[in-house]
Design brief:
The chain is mainly beta and about 90 residues long. The chain has one domain (about 5-80): OB fold (Dihydrolipoamide Acetyltransferase, E2P), CATH 2.40.50. The chain contains no helices and five strands. It has strands spanning about 5-15, 20-30, 35-45, 60-65, 75-80. Strands 1-2-3-5-4 form a five-stranded mixed beta barrel.
């Protein structure tokens, strides 16, 4: 039976590496005892083969095989482009 791949959405925080971007994903998590909802952030390194993601872009990443030591996600789609200050 094939496992379902995990899909996450987040914002690109760094695009300085070649073909790799850092994506920050935010989740709302309820405390098991007290019930307070808190934000939990995690940073994922994702493979961006075309080098088309920029800082501030909202992207969808999908789980993949390990591409390098720290990269095991890849950019699926760019949902929303960041507003650039140029122009």
């Amino acid at each position: 039976m094939r496992e379902r791949l995990r899909v996450r959405e987040g914002f690109v925080t760094s695009d300085r590496m070649d073909k790799t971007v850092v994506v920050e994903v935010t989740d709302l998590v309820r405390h098991p005892l007290f019930g307070k909802v808190t934000k939990r952030r995690s940073k994922l390194k994702a493979h961006d083969a075309a080098n088309e993601c920029r800082v501030g872009d909202r992207v969808r990443v999908i789980e993949s095989r390990p591409i390098s030591k720290t990269v095991c996600w890849r950019v699926s789609t760019i949902i929303e482009r960041a507003v650039s200050a140029e122009g």
